[in-house]
Design brief:
The chain has 15 helices and 13 strands. By secondary structure, the chain is an alpha/beta fold. The strands form two sheets. It has a seven-stranded parallel beta sheet with strand order 3-2-1-4-5-6-7. Strands 10-9-8-11-12-13 form a six-stranded parallel beta sheet, sandwiched between helices. Strand 9, helix 10 and strand 10 form a beta-alpha-beta unit. Helix 8 packs across helix 11. The longest helix has 19 residues. The mean pLDDT is 94.
Length: 366
């Protein structure tokens, strides 16, 4: 057998975000004797050690926020000019993929894949303007287009949407199968017993809308004092949200778990998943939550493709807190049949083994 195909994945870092989690799920489930993943990153990440243990190589260059536009372009150009071994570059940086793939194209990398994981850019006015500029070269630089949902394809690939392939955000479905013993163990670890746990998993940034989420919980707790809120994740806005919780005297009602490597276990302890994001591609966490049989109350800014058809999803417009509370109370009263949930995901093709087999075939064919 010859050497495996080495695919270079371009990301900012390999932390526990949605796109990165999907990448790791694929990486763990492909035949690494046939396809090997390497990574072009700008910062250290949570998954770095596991990547190297699986045979992956992590390359690091400075990001645009460190070196500015011309410094970042120079670093990319130097990398591609000195690493001619890569014939497939797969970029997961949304509009920033335009800059990455343009430099790969200049250096004659033959296969350049743009992968859309979102439906909007993050950051302030200057950052969004820069990303708009970067995004102008995505279509002219990419040879292949992938997206996690039709909505994500429509956002990044305007004019060539018909050429985009949708790769489902698969998960390791068996890991999310409901287990009452795990539920009790995690609830005990959290110091909770009979309380109703409202859960959220997500990075503390503007997109995830934590300020609105805390406002919802404040009013919900006033009418349902047995409720508790569990927030998993980290990010730049975490101190601000922690301070807001203190100002509202909710410290004993809100639990910040930080980054967890056992989200599949944490979800077992929840009674409901709350997700009021301002925008998303197709969140892996929502697939995971449904795999665990959790009712989900989510923003109607999220694509309807996130609904797996199990009757667990409630879409609510951002705005009226009362409407959110109404839907949460309704969802908490849904009949609980959590053991069967992940069977539906397998039937719909969201088992990571299906996604990994497709991905391996895709790389081999191109």
């Amino acid at each position: 057998m010859g050497d495996p195909i080495r695919v270079l994945h371009a990301v900012v870092n390999m932390n526990r975000g949605g796109a990165e989690t999907l990448l790791m799920n694929l990486y763990r489930n492909i035949d690494r004797e046939k396809v090997q993943f390497d990574f072009l990153t700008c910062k250290e990440g949570d998954f770095d050690r596991e990547i190297t243990e699986m045979g992956g190589i992590i390359h690091r260059i400075p990001y645009v926020t460190e070196k500015g536009h011309f410094g970042y372009v120079k670093a990319l150009n130097h990398f591609f000019s000195t690493h001619k071994e890569y014939v497939i570059v797969h970029s997961h940086m949304d509009k920033m993929s335009g800059i990455v793939l343009r430099e790969a194209q200049k250096n004659n990398v033959p296969i350049r894949i743009a992968h859309s994981h979102n439906t909007s850019s993050e950051g302030g006015t200057a950052a969004r303007l820069y990303k708009w500029y970067a995004g102008r070269t995505v279509l002219s630089s990419a040879t292949h287009l992938l997206a996690c949902s039709q909505a994500a394809a429509n956002w990044l690939f305007k004019g060539k949407v018909g050429q985009a392939v949708i790769l489902k955000n698969g998960i390791e479905v068996d890991k999310y199968r409901f287990c009452s013993e795990t539920r009790q163990r995690i609830r005990k670890e959290l110091g909770l017993t009979d309380q109703k746990i409202i859960g959220h998993v997500g990075r503390f940034n503007h997109q995830k809308n934590h300020t609105f989420l805390i406002g919802i919980f404040l009013k919900l707790h006033q009418s349902m004092p047995e409720t508790r809120l569990v927030l998993a994740g980290d990010g730049p806005l975490k101190p601000k949200i922690e301070q807001k919780v203190k100002n509202l005297n909710l410290e004993k009602k809100v639990i910040f778990t930080g980054v967890r490597s056992d989200i599949h276990h944490l979800l077992q302890a929840f009674d409901l998943f709350l997700f009021p994001s301002l925008h998303e591609g197709l969140p892996v966490t929502l697939i995971e939550a449904q795999g665990a049989g959790l009712p989900c109350v989510i923003s109607n800014e999220i694509t309807k493709e996130a609904d797996m058809g199990m009757g667990l999803m409630s879409y609510v417009p951002l705005g009226s807190t009362e409407r959110w509370i109404e839907e949460i109370k309704k969802a908490l009263n849904l009949p609980k049949e959590r053991e069967e949930a992940n069977r539906f995901l397998t039937e719909k093709g969201y088992d990571i083994k299906t996604s990994a087999a497709w991905t391996q075939g895709f790389y081999s064919a191109i």
